[in-house]
Amino acid sequence: MDKYMKEVINEDKLARKRVEEAKKKLAGITSSLVSEKSIYDEFMKEEEKKTLAIQQKLEIEIETVKKQCEEEKAKGLELLKKQFITNKDQWIENIIQNILS
Description:
The protein is an all-alpha fold.
């Protein structure tokens, strides 16, 4: 019976040792996962900052282009208005002559 008790005690010691090794391994894996998550989170924050900066730059560029287009449109309309005022009498005369002839 003494032999069986020694075997049980030895098996218990081995089991406890394996449990401790498994806990250490699990702690290492958990630590690794936490580290990877923090690296991922840091990467995502940096990419979000870069994306926001690009978005702001593009919004400024869009506003600049919109402003230029509005200015060009206003100039075009003003030019068309001047051309109409300058030539309306002659255009009316041409239309009337084309109708009458």
